[in-house]
Design brief:
The complex is a heterotrimer of chains A (261), B (231) and C (51). Chain A has eight helices and no strands. By secondary structure, chain A is mainly α. Chain B contains nine helices and no strands. Classes of the chains: A mainly alpha (261), B mainly alpha (231), C mainly alpha (51). Chains in contact: A-B, A-C.
């Protein structure tokens, strides 16, 4: 009995382990992920168009805020992504530091600029949403202040990574910084939230007041899913380019370029 | 051995050195952003530490923005001569036959373009964050445009004096902040006068006079400081 | 105050930032390709001069 189940169990386990091992090889990773990227872009495009149509055209104007609430469809998904990407970067960074896997280092470092981009989009969209809603482009409310601190954390990781010449050493240092930032992040969020209530009494929120109707919710979720595909496509593109750059002198890179030309 | 005998014109040397320093700075483009990010972080710390109350922020805005500019400048000053000092290029400049004053001036101009000009360009964002009244925004930008070159010029003297020291960076702040006090006082006076709709042009005139004086005198002092440090 | 310019501005800035973020690695790939071509040329030249 035991012998039979043991023989059946082993190949399945080996397939997964083999897959993970293969992903660690740069030429195989480059090849494998390259097939997915166009599909991810396609799905991102389709979902975005659909979500924006539902959100900008079909959903009715908000009873309290008028048309400006439509900025929510870019502000909120961008905010979600900015935090999701930082957590992902920290997790990847942890794996990279503990297991010293080069591909994971590259994935972690490639995530940083994407996360920073989403944070910038969150801040600018939030600022532009605030102008018609509160009358001013910037208010030190809990969300915007937290996002600003998050942006500084991202810029720190990017800055540290770019200032060390040796790529693997630079990645390890920046991954450590990302982990430290991730541990700090909940503390920062809560302290900023507390600071906000302390100084302003009632908490101001861009979405405060109106409850979200389902017709408003669907576009939000669709665009939120779309942004995940953007992240996947962009991350893999950046990781592949980093691999080309770091392995410039290796044969597999020359082969890849020959195939392209 | 003078400049002509060395085979180059004065203006040629100036622009060549300016171009070289800018090229070097742009090779490490990310490092250009460090003083900028520092500026943004420092200004953001004030509402976090004091509270976001709009009136309070508006009152302290001129001082906060100017102090942040001072701090950002001092941080970026060390890079002014350091890499050239460390690899011996600075000594080559001294024996080159070109006047060290001109070399110092070229490096200071490069420093301002890379470190001071971004402060001027970012000031509207900082003004927004600190709730600076709209009427004084123009004056704010003007004081920064006139004042940051003075910061670079006077700062270069301090850098020249401390370049050969191990803890030069820390001593630099100590040396240079007292020299910066008049600029801080006059600049913030100008902005606060503008917010209260009082006359402010006399302050701008003083800043302009300070700029002209420093452009003519500071490079000499910086060159003398470098010669002492290299001796 | 009409809200539409703000909506337009928010979405356009968002689009520009995300577009630039998506395109930047492609520009980098081009410069890497040029660098590699240059590397190959240097290697071939040194090989020729050795032989």
């Amino acid at each position: 009995m035991n012998k039979n189940t043991e023989i059946k169990a082993k190949p399945r386990k080996n397939a997964v382990v083999m897959f993970i091992h293969k992903m660690g090889s740069p030429p195989w990773f480059y090849d494998f992920t390259g097939k997915f990227i166009p599909w991810f872009w396609l799905i991102f495009g389709a979902l975005t168009v659909w979500g924006l149509y539902l959100g900008l055209v079909k959903a009715p104007a908000d009873y309290l805020q008028g048309e400006s609430f439509r900025i929510m469809y870019i502000h909120v998904p961008a905010a979600w992504m900015s935090m999701l990407i930082y957590s992902t970067m920290a997790v990847l960074g942890f794996i990279a530091l503990v297991w010293r896997i080069r591909i994971v280092e590259i994935l972690a470092m490639s995530s940083a600029p994407i996360g920073a981009a989403f944070t910038i989009v969150t801040l600018t969209a939030g600022s532009l949403w605030g102008r018609p809603t509160w009358g001013t482009y910037w208010v030190w409310d809990a969300r915007l202040t937290s996002e600003l601190v998050l942006l500084f954390l991202y810029l720190g990781v990017i800055g540290l990574y770019n200032s060390i010449d040796e790529p693997r050493k630079a990645a390890r240092a920046a991954c450590l910084l990302a982990i430290v930032g991730a541990v700090n992040l909940p503390i920062i969020h809560y302290s900023v939230k507390w600071w906000n209530t302390l100084h302003q009494g009632s908490s101001i929120s861009l979405l405060g007041g109106s409850s979200i109707d389902t017709s408003m919710l669907w576009p939000l979720l669709i665009i939120a899913i779309a942004t995940k595909f953007y992240y996947a496509a962009n991350l893999l593109t950046r990781a592949r380019v980093s691999l080309l750059e770091q392995d410039m002198r290796k044969a597999w890179v020359r082969e890849v370029l020959k195939e392209k030309n | 051995m003078n400049a002509e005998a060395a085979g180059g014109s004065l203006s040629g040397a100036f622009f060549a050195l300016l171009r070289r320093d800018l090229l070097l700075a742009f090779r490490r483009r990310t490092e250009l952003l460090f003083p900028v990010i520092f500026l943004l972080v420092v200004v953001s710390l004030f509402p976090l530490g004091i509270g976001p109350g709009p009136q309070l922020l508006a009152r302290i805005a001129p001082g906060v923005i100017w102090i942040a500019a001072l701090l950002a400048t001092v941080i970026s000053l060390d890079a002014l001569f350091r890499s050239d000092f460390e690899d011996g290029t600075l000594e080559q400049f001294v024996i080159s036959g070109h006047p060290l004053t001109l070399i110092a001036l070229a490096k200071i101009v490069a420093h301002w373009l890379v470190a001071g000009l971004p402060i001027v360009l970012l000031s509207p964002l900082l003004a927004l964050w600190m709730n600076l009244p709209m009427e004084s925004l123009g004056v704010m930008i003007l004081t920064l445009a006139l004042g940051t070159p003075i910061l670079s010029l006077i700062g270069s003297i301090g850098v020249g004096l401390t370049i050969s020291l191990k803890r030069g960076g820390q001593l630099l702040s100590l040396l240079v902040f007292p020299l910066y006090v008049p600029i801080l006082i006059i600049a913030t006076a100008a902005v606060m006068a503008a917010s209260d709709s009082l006359p402010y042009t006399q302050f701008l005139g003083l800043l302009l006079a300070g700029l002209i004086t420093s452009v003519t005198l500071a490079p000499f002092a910086a060159a003398a400081a470098l010669k002492i440090s290299l001796s | 105050m009409s809200h539409t310019p703000f909506i337009w501005a928010a979405y356009s800035i968002g689009a520009v930032v995300l577009l630039w973020c998506a395109v930047a690695p492609l520009a980098k790939r081009k410069s890497i390709a040029t660098n590699i071509r240059r590397l190959i040329q240097i290697e071939e030249r040194s090989r020729d001069s050795d032989s």
